[in-house]
């Protein structure tokens, strides 16, 4: 849910330990100088929350080093923040003199859109066109970088710049499929047949986590299997009315409950976090995991004892996904030109290729330039989905604070609540906000 979620939206990557708003004002990790140094024309202050060993963490570190080479007289003060730190306290910090010059921030109405509406982010529209970033990002991936006066995505002003993509796909333990003579799914019927066959063999087939974004991702993905472009635009962009008891969400809630009742998910998964879900897959306890590509890089490192593969979820032509998180420049940033220069470096071929080789999805280079075979397949799958309007964003994006609603509602569904009751829970804040727009 876009992680964000915001609390963090239903998000897609391991989070660093959240700390207090007071800690957000203090330096955590500094590279190239003390945070106590007075920010001036020769200082770039930069925040992000990527793990240093992940594809994006490595890419941003390389971008910092490249920036230092091209700006030898500029001091770079980098602070690694926790995702929830920035998520929960960004409004307060960016409205103070502690704002960095550039930072990574989650996309969506409840995050980048909200800060843009509050006047806390710089309008980058002219810069984006001048530097040609719009040509590299593309229309589909830029939806979550562009907002209107209400702070709703898809507007005509750029308030952020994404330089990677993300989407939800299926991970298979190929060895378990072979061991139990289960055919790899090619459509929804064969997917359910695989679930049933694993369950009959005493294996819970699906890895999941009820106390994190994966549970809500599953519910939305099932709804998308019955949805068209108009439904997605109505739900995400308020282009029309959404009926939470219509065929899309009704099917999703009923199918989800059916799978819980059949044991395709375990009810005890209701209290698990995303890392617990990946551990189920890495430890070969669950043969199938449907999750974001943000898990991909860690899996390539962590899985040692079995062969695995990825494929689009076979039950739907649409999946959760979008352009990645945004680089944003706060309105109160002291050195906006330096911030623009840094963003430009993250869009360079060198950094974009690094993102791809390390197992993530760069937006500005082609898949055939990547030598890592698994990564090349991943990137190709993303661009295929993006080109065909197959990316349908995340379920909690339309409403500020909606992540908590989705989290509680999917947990209720796993705990035995009636589907209609759960859909009422999801509808209430959405309908309230939709009504306030008119």
UniProtKB/TrEMBL annotation:
Domain of life of the organism encoding this protein: Bacteria
Matching InterPro entries: Bact_solute-bd_prot1 (IPR050490), SBP (IPR006059), TAT_signal (IPR006311)
Residues making up the signal peptide according to the UniProt record: 1-32
Keyword Nucleus in record: no
Keywords for this protein: Signal
Protein name in UniProt: Raffinose/stachyose/melibiose transport system substrate-binding protein
Species in which this protein is naturally found: Streptomyces griseomycini
Species classification: Bacteria, Bacillati, Actinomycetota, Actinomycetes, Kitasatosporales
